[in-house]
Specification:
By secondary structure, the chain is of the alpha/beta class. The chain has 3 domains: 178 residues, 3-Layer(aba) Sandwich (Rossmann fold); 36 residues; 111 residues, Zinc Finger, Delta Prime, domain 3. The protein has 18 helices and 5 strands. The protein has a 5-stranded parallel β-sheet, covered by helices on one side. Strand 3, helix 8 and strand 4 form a beta-alpha-beta unit. The N and C termini lie far apart (51 Å). It binds zinc ion.
Length: 342
């Protein structure tokens, strides 16, 4: 199902744009930190924009248009999304989008862009306007980016593009220059806390800190583990903080399948960052529930080592997207972490 409501922290900015629908630019880039609800903003925006109830500024959720968009079945609406993200968000995509792909792709493929060209060139079915969401545009490869650019250069009168991105730097400058930029800010801390609490997230402040104050990420993480630091990593840190003998090979044998390597690297980077803060007597930013173990670890390393290894992990993160032997890769990461502490 496609979301058609804005989150509380999005209402004001949505209102600003939707109160004058006739003045909306034909191509908008919606960008902001990962995990703050940009996807839901874009679909609620499209639903509101196509809603046929004239008395309603936002999607009325009652008219035919609102019903169709909710089912991702609106003839004037297209959602271009990598199929791995569609699976994650449980969104059914059309048969055309699925064909030729037997794997969960992280990219928006050129076929997805090409498939909408005939649709762009026909008149809208219902209300003289059509809208296409491209999520996430950061995942457009060069060929797809150029195909999109061509569409933006020759817009038809009734078409609107909503291009969603975590990071403007990843988009072609020629695409950026043809669009209006809409920045979605990080919601304020109290608003996010209240929202997480209302959605029954336990220890919501721990999750919010861990997620850099991005409430949707905080919610998502809290759904699949008990604490921000996975127990396998926590146990490993306990061993490190107690200066115990660590046998990397036996650790590797117990490595759980549900921690992706990218996530493991991300967690260690956050830990190193917190440890540097602690050395300056500043409260940790990410793991606010682990002050005791972090204090203990901080006495066993230096800022230089932590910062250098943080940078080393960054390089590793880039490699982790490529085909690597998981065990060898993990082995090198764990050894690097172990040697960060004396
Ligand atoms: Zn409606």
């Amino acid at each position: 199902m496609i979301a058609n409501s804005f989150f509380p922290w999005q209402i004001e900015i949505a209102n600003k744009y939707l109160k004058n629908p006739d003045k909306i630019h034909h191509a908008i880039i919606l960008y902001g930190l990962k995990g703050i609800g940009k996807f839901e903003f874009s679909t609620a925006f499209a639903a509101s924009f196509l809603c046929e109830n004239r008395d309603s500024k936002f999607a009325c959720k009652k008219c035919i248009s609102c019903n169709l968009i909710e089912k991702n079945n609106h003839p004037d609406f297209k959602l271009l999304i990598p199929n791995s993200i569609a699976d994650e968000k449980k969104i059914s995509i059309s048969f055309d989008d699925k064909k030729n792909t037997s794997y969960a792709s992280n990219e928006i493929r050129i076929n997805q862009i090409r498939d909408i060209i005939p649709w762009i060139n026909v008149k809208s079915y219902r209300n003289n306007k059509k809208i296409v969401i491209i999520y996430k545009a950061d995942n457009l490869n060069t060929i797809s980016s150029n195909a999109l650019l061509k569409m933006l250069e020759e817009p038809s009168d009734d078409i609107f593009f909503l291009i969603v991105s975590d990071c403007l730097d990843k988009l072609l400058p020629t695409i950026v220059s043809r669009c209006q930029i809409l920045h979605l800010p990080i919601p304020d801390y109290q608003t996010s806390l209240k929202w997480l609490k209302n959605n029954n997230v336990d220890n919501y402040d721990n999750w919010l800190s861990f997620s850099s104050n991005a409430p949707i990420d905080a919610f998502r993480y809290s759904m699949y583990r008990k604490n921000p630091c996975p127990s396998w990593i926590y146990d490993f840190l306990q061993l490190l903080s107690n200066n115990s003998d660590i046998h990397v090979f036996s650790l590797l044998d117990s490595y759980p399948d549900d921690i992706l390597i990218n996530e493991l690297i991300d967690i260690f980077q956050k830990l190193f960052f917190d440890l540097v803060l602690i050395s300056y007597k500043i409260t940790p930013k990410y793991f606010i529930d682990m002050k005791k173990i972090l204090n203990k670890l901080s006495t066993r390393s230096t800022n230089d080592v932590l910062i250098n290894n943080f940078i080393w992990l960054n390089r590793k993160k880039k490699l982790s997207d490529q085909q690597v032997n998981k065990k060898i890769f993990l082995n090198s990461i764990l050894n690097k972490v172990i040697t960060s502490f004396k």
